[in-house]
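Quick question: what would this complex look like in 3D?
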Amino acid sequence: MTAGAPATRTTEALLVDALSAGYGDTQVLWDVSLRVDPGEVVALIGSNGAGKSTLLGAISGIVKTWSGAARYGETSLTGLEPDRIVSAGVLQVPQGRRLFGSLSVEDNLRMGAYLRKDREVESDLKRMLDLLPKLRERYDYLAGRLSGGEQQQVAIARALMARPQMLLIDEMSLGLAPVLVDQLIELLASIHQTGVSILIVEQDVQTALEVSSRAYVLETGRITLSGPSAELLDDPQVKKAYLGV
Amino acid sequence: MKRIGLGGITGNPGAFAIVLGLMVLLLAVPLTHNGYVETVFRNILMYAAMAYGWNLIGGYTGYVSFGNVAFFGLGAYCSGVLAAHGVSNLFAYVALAMVVCAVFAVIVGFPVLRLKGHYFGIATLGVALAVADIIANLDVLGGSSGLAMHQLDEAHFSTYYYAMWLVALGSMLGTYFIARSKLGYAFVAIRENEDAAAVLGIAATRYKIIAWAISGMMAGSAGAIFAPANGFIDPSITFAVDSNVFPIVMTILGGSGTVAGPFIGSLLLAGANELLQRFFVKAHTLFFGAMIVLIVLLLPRGLVWLFGLRGGVRAWIKSVQVYRA
């Protein structure tokens, strides 16, 4: 617990195996497979509409899986209700923050611990404020009145209050100034140090590849490329399509 | 809930204390031995219970229902049926009404609570109209000509008042304890952001149905006492437009999503309506409407909100502007 984030070191891997999903008649994901090893930071990159958020939704039980499977360690996540998936330790930070706008920052954080039954919520709350001093200043503010960067901090802190072992973070940097993105990256690094596995989904490919050890490229619902992030940064295909180099 | 230490979303504690004090004062109303006054205040308590019911689903959970009158009517008919079988115990009336309304809410809730926003509102309105129509066509329940109910004699008539007082108090305290509990936080999470609630593991469908069932139990209990107190029920009385709209307006004027709001709203609105009717026999609805418009414009978050206001007139003007923007 070097950085003081309330989290549990995970020993489980997230495995997605030939997963297909979609909405109504429209198939969005086609046989997507990926894995996140214990304590690893993995990036999922791809352009708008590639199906990144759908994949996170399918893993966390919000989007129905058509075929294939997602497993976390021994637990099969496919077909499980979202609350069971949260209890299993897999938690999503949804795109666009999705805070409880007319509740205070404190209540937002406490809401993150909704399913917890242990008695360490108070101490986790304290540690959260040590980790994010900005939130201490804003503790009684309505979450909806905060700036975009602060809101994203609240969203991540709220997720951490659930003591996840595996965080799925959707478009963390969307709409934020570069300096704020840098702060959030530091936050991610300190969360990662506590042993939490992280799957980040990003349109900001440069950032995603810099913070992750491995990455997958999702194009129109299919994984087209994968490998160590450092290699993908140099990959001509990735450079051309996503980095504009 | 204590484990995660939530303080509760009850609204201003001062407002709640005042409301509890007013409730105690209302116990004295039958001592006036004035039938008219007693009926006026019994109606205020009835509307308060219905407003608390609406507040749970509309105010706390954020699902604006236009069908809660269905529960009120079902509750009234529960009493009617029991009375026809010779049962005269008011507790039995309320108990049956609560069971029937909860079951009805669960059955109807599964399809209807999947809808959001306007669609939910329209569907609930349809439910209320359908229930009224079905009852109007059931001869067992007296059809459109209704059911007469045996009433207590004059010496014991205040029993209905006290029973309605208990129903209102139960709805108020029920709301208070729910708002302080983990259940209340689930409701508010759904209102604030249903997707975020789901992602955090709050099973939205389950909690929405619970909210609607409790909401229905409150309205149904009010109906169960209204029926014998009124002595006669038919579909047009028990499914009246007023009974549907008043609790919503009262909750919003008093402060929706608070514990004190629905009671303050019903006291003010039902009281004002009564007074205006007495002093302006012809134009009372005009003044009534003007009053509602003024409150909505000047106190967009309800009367209870005044209790939490710090900074005087300036803070008030600023907040009105913020709310409109």
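Answer marked as accepted. The mean pLDDT of chain B is 90.
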